[in-house]
Amino acid sequence: MSDDLIRLSAADLGAKLAAGEVSSVEATRAHLDRIAAVDGAVHAFLHVAGEHALETAAAVDAKRAAGDELGPLAGVPIAVKDVLVTKGMPSTSGSRILEGWIPPYDATPVTKIREAGLVPLGKTNMDEFAMGSSTEHSAYGPTHNPWDLERIPGGSGGGSAASVAAFEAPLALGSDTGGSIRQPAHVTGTVGVKPTYGAVSRYGSIALASSLDQIGPVTRTVLDAALLHDVIAGHDPLDSTSIPETWPSMAEAVRRSDVSGLRIGVIKELDGEGFQAGVRQRFHESLDLLAKQGAEIVEVSAPHFEYSIAAYYLILPAEASSNLAKFDSVRFGLRVTPDGGGTVEQVMAATREAGFGPEVKRRIILGTYALSAGYYDAYYGSAQKVRTLVQRDFDAAFEQVDVLASPTAPTTAFRFGEKLADPLSMYLNDIATIPANLAGVPGISVPAGLAPEDGLPVGIQFLAPARQDARLYNVGGALEQLLEAEWGGPLLGSAPDLSTHELTATEEGAL
Amino acid sequence: MARAELMDYDKALELFEPVIGLEVHVELNTTTKMFSPAPNPANSAYHGAEPNTLVSPVCLGLPGSLPVVNGDAVRSSISLGLALGCSIAPSSRFARKNYFYPDLAKNYQISQYDEPIAFEGSVEVELANGRVFDVPIERAHMEEDAGKLTHVGGSTGRIQGAEYSLVDYNRAGVPLVEIVTKPIFGAEADAPELAKAYVSTIRDIALSLGISEARMERGNLRCDANVSLRPRGAEQLGIRTETKNVNSFRSIERAVRYEIQRQAAILAKGGSITQETRHWHEDTGTTSPGRPKSDADDYRYFPEPDLLPVVPSAELIDKLRAALPEAPAAHRRRLKAQWGFTDLEFQDVANSGLLVELEETVKAGATPAAARKWWTGEIARLANAAGVDAASLVAPVHVAELAQLVDSGSLTDRLARQVLEGVVAGEGSPQQIVDIRGLAVVSDDGALIAAIDEALASQPDVLAKIRDGKVQAAGAVIGAVMKAMHGKADAARVRELVLERASAPVE
């Protein structure tokens, strides 16, 4: 029974909860048991709030018993990326500098999931301040890919993706600044969505790059992502960049999936050199399936995408260098006092020296340099111009097609340490995902199969014009249905059985 | 530089032309802060709150928090910009000014940089001698204030030498408008006075708009004065200094004058001026160097990505423009006529920077003459003795109450001065002080008559003189009665009663 519960989709679990076939406490306990059994090996969680989760679940059960009208995900457990602040729960953003800090408030997406009756299980691991593509930059050790524990689960949201892939949670929240939701989905055989910039409030999301960050769903099915998307999206007066208009139901878009006549543009620049053969193969097979259902596949060009990474690695560090300035020991978090005391400047410097990891320092230095007088125009200014050009590429492409498609990332999951010494090759992981962040358009990564050469998951990415997130759920839902019919079930059904591992349980509050 | 080393002011003006530039920060009195829902301590309702009680995650810069622009602050800023004769930008942007300092919660200040909300204006400023200047305004932009540091230990109260410092984030995020003038040429010897009169005019404007409490002693209004000198006939501007910590109208004038004399002394000896921030010391009347200002100051400005551009509609701007009160210069002309003051009387009030106080006092029920008498007389004297601005000593409503107590005969002028001292000491309103101290004039004729009869009885010769028609002899009796009444009697009434009693039939 317990094993059945953890393998259910969130939609199905929600239905069982609504039908009274299972209680939220049972469902929550099943997931906590699973976490206890496998997270020693996976290390998806930085903090498991078991007691709190069971209390929340009991409260939802009580509401249901009292006849309250509840949403479709009420009582369903969820994992929350540690980038989101949670009242009464540690929120470190994967950094030593925030160790022990307990926020006095909830991020808006967390408030929304609580209001919808979801049950937060704990906080998931991530690259420090979301800087990375492998979780190897987490100050608390990496998360392991449930498909192969020697490999990276993607990043920065490797913890959220792995928690879902390892059946520790049916749903998770992630954040995507350059691919941190989509690339982990790609390497873990899960679904990840980066909504339109401004669709989900950033209030309470520990900022990496304010103009690029977006919170989104991490799930095993497209419908689950849509249901979670419907919960977290919407205008928030606390975030000035949040879009004021209301949204159509994403879940409806999945349920009414129909790709006949849909024009799908294949981005020429993201389908060739540098992409693993098996990744390309599964990508084209997916397109063929969609074509058979009546979708029209056309090639489009986005000539400025090749400058995306360069522009991104100026804009992101520039904003991050400023966003991360607040971590100075004065009001919260780590404080390191030099031997024999020191001035406040010396304490700030010592704290930042000890509290930030090497990748964070690298980007703060990059960003500080890019914003410096005399360099601003050449670096930050030029990068913003490239950003405009990338946006124009999207505009031009979306005049020809309804959605764009590409492999989500160039390769399947790499081994730990493989790219750690070479930041540039690490950065190249995000070549296909970054343009969407630069332009603010939404993107989804859906499992496309296993690469024949290494048997590891591959994802396909769809991109839509800003505010047309529903198109992603339409095409994603359709493809998922077609592929699962071919595979005879979900891709994750063929993932290794983690319960054979000898594991140590994580305890409440353990990191 | 010790005052003795300064160049004589007239000599300095003979050799050099002073050029000044003024930066005035106006704290807006909106209910909440610039970017956060926390209460605004620059609103009088929240003044004097305990440290770190007027805060939210936003003003503490907690991880994940985001700023949201306060619409009221934008409207106030537009009104102020319009009152300064500025154009209002159809779209203006916030930027981040990055620097590390413990009073700056996020270690960046949200300000406006290359796209201020208001630009290119001018303000009419009138000096005591009747000269009228149009001070050119470069820009007015919105920003947030920093928190407040209190340095504990050490002798100077400054960060150097302090044992530790306390931070109060109540002020962090208070809405500010910074008004920057263009270089002001041609003021010549009047430059220090113009600086003072300009800030006073800004205060008048802010008060007339109702957008700020505008009290310098509370930091609602702060002025940084830039001063440079160039040799007579020279084209190129001299190197400037920026004097901070000028916290009263009086010190603005003194600080500018001091800088002119200091720089002149250095330049005349062939020295050069260091471009720097200088700190004004009220006690010694001097400035000392602060942080050197150089190109090395790199604030790494970039557009604030958490906020959208501010795009006020043309309708809003028109509406705010239509609602603008009179300009201070026009306002003065009207007041002068209404109050019936002579040129000299009006100048006296205006030069003391007390127009607003007078207006408030008249509004609260005093006659213009009485209001003028108190503000330019006793209150100015007390302020001068304490070295503070008169406005900071007492509230206009209290002055009006005092004047009314005198007019109604409840207080003599002498008693009223005692009551005023009580008000200044913070003992309460005039009426409360009258009640507490028992200062009211004895208006009970019975008590006065008893005292008069006693005095007359003890001075029979005086009684005889009065009866002989030597009325001036009554003075001795009046004096004795006033003494017996501890001064709390109306001398005129006592005189009336003395004459009445003296002429009464002998019993």
Would you give an account of this structure?
The complex is a heterodimer of chains A (511) and B (507). Chain A is an alpha/beta fold and 511 residues long. Chain A has one domain: Amidase signature (AS) domain (Amidase signature (AS) enzymes, Alpha-Beta Complex). In chain A, 40% of the residues lie in helices and 12% in strands. Chain A contains 17 helices and eleven strands. Chain A has helices spanning 2-7, 10-18, 24-42, 50-65, 108-115, 158-165, 182-188, 222-232, 250-255, 277-292, 308-323, 344-355, 358-371, 377-400, 423-427, 434-439, 469-487; strands spanning 45-48, 77-81, 119-124, 171-175, 191-194, 215-219, 263-267, 296-300, 403-407, 443-450, 457-463. An eleven-stranded mixed β-sheet of chain A has the order 1-3-2-4-6-5-10-11-9-7-8, with helices on both faces. In chain A, α3 packs antiparallel against α4, α11 (308-323) crosses α13 (358-371) and α11 packs across α14. Chain A starts with a helix and ends in a 24-residue tail after the last helix. In chain A, 61% of the residues are buried. Residues 502-511 of chain A have low confidence and may be disordered. Chain B is of the alpha+beta class and 507 residues long. Chain B folds into three domains: 9-29 and 69-143 and 174-318, no CATH class; 326-437, no CATH class; 445-501, Arc Repressor Mutant, subunit A (Orthogonal Bundle). Chain B has 16 helices and 14 strands. Chain B has helices at residues 9-15, 71-83, 191-209, 249-268, 314-322, 328-339, 343-351, 355-363, 368-386, 396-407, 413-424, 430-437, 445-458, 460-467, 474-484, 491-502; strands at residues 16-27, 87-88, 95-98, 108-111, 118-126, 132-144, 148-152, 164-168, 175-181, 221-231, 241-246, 276-281, 286-292, 302-303. A nine-stranded mixed β-sheet of chain B has the order 2-5-6-9-1-10-11-12-13. In chain B, β11 (241-246), α4 (249-268) and β12 (276-281) form a beta-alpha-beta unit. The longest helix of chain B has 20 residues, at 249-268. Chain B is elongated. In chain B, 44% of the residues are buried. At the A-B interface, α11 and α12 of A face loops of B.
